[in-house]
Amino acid sequence: MARPAVFTEPGALLYAGNCRDLYDASLAGKVTLSAWTRRKYPGTPLGDALPQVLSVGGWDAASPQDWGLKEHCNEGVKIAYMARGTMALRVDGQTHHLTEGQMFVVRPWQLHQFGDPHVAASQIIWVLFDVGVRRPHEDWLWPDWLAWPARDTERLTRLLSRNEQHVSTASRDVARSFHDIADIVAGGDIEGDEARLRLMISMMLLQFADQLESQAPVLDEALASSKRTVQIFLKRLPHALDEDWTLENMAAECKLSRTQFSQHCQALTNMTPVRYLQMIRLEAARKWLSERAEASVTEVAHSCGFSSSQYFATCYKRRFGYSPQETRGII
Question: pTM value?
């Protein structure tokens, strides 16, 4: 299983390879994909155009599909509009049933999937920005070509980083701008239409910021805190137990000092990071020993991050009062 636990590891569910099902469906003629992209996102390469845009465009599925996009994270902030049809969108465990005229925002640390499990007949238009963040507490950096005053980019950042409402109804102006973005991309002239697309994306963002502000959302500073980063890391850590975690690299994964990371971990779990890590490794091992009869104790130990099966057995018996071998006769 690819793991969602880390923010930067290439093996995590962070990367654009999770769009493979969409790409394959487009090659098979099941869906029309019209997107300008960079890195590994499927579409026409942007080259040097539109710095910090990872993908702009959309898909058009005229009929119900036999594929979906599995749970993953993006490398940027996705702002998208439901131009037609319906869609099941799951974000951080919460399912939304999108309908025509709605829009959604997904941030880089938010696990999400499209389809339940398959994508319905739908047209979605999106812009995916790399604003330089992978974690909630990092500073957002919007593209220079927006040419906005700092106060306006700061306003947009606050509205998106301290408010995690996933779905809203698009205003008429925002909807029109998304359709204009899709029309420009469909024209296929990246070099000739870059300036026009920059203006249209900037207009959409300005209209979207105004729309959000008009709704008077309650902004929560805790959503953009380093404690939130650690909270997400710890929640996903059970999916990456085989990593060679130390206090140093856990803190580095959260882009925090060892002291900051340890303080947040203690506040969230009432344990030191190393003690918490050992606890969830042992709990996972007990579960796997009962569920994976074909796996040896050594294999389970290694899967849970113990390099020595003897040390694993010692820690296991100290915690549960019986050996790993005895577990299979108890549970």
Answer: 0.91
